[in-house]
Amino acid sequence: MPLMSDDDFSIHDDDCEKQESGWMPVSDLPDEVTSMDDLDCACWEEYDSIAEI
To answer: What are the helix and strand counts (H, E) for the chain?
Structure first.
């Protein structure tokens, strides 16, 4: 399940190494995320497409 950072609203994988307190789970990616390029964190590199998430 994706997580959103309260600080900068960035989206991360649930096993991202950058996790800190203040992250909340989100059931779906925000509408603004339309491609893998919209996910800046390296934690998404294991996925080939948004459909896999």
So the answer is: 0, 3
Domains in the chain, number: 1
For the chain, give the number of residues.
53
In angstroms and rounded to an integer, the radius of gyration of the C-alpha atoms of the chain is: 10
23: phi then psi, degrees, rounded to nearest 5? -95, 140
| Domain hosting residue 53, numbered range | 1-53
Quote the CA–CA distance of 23 and 37 in Å, as a whole number: 21
pLDDT digits 0-9 by tens, 8-45: 889 999 889 887 778 999 999 999 999 999 999 999 99
Residue type at 12 in one-letter notation:
H
Is the entire prediction scored with pTM above 0.70?
yes
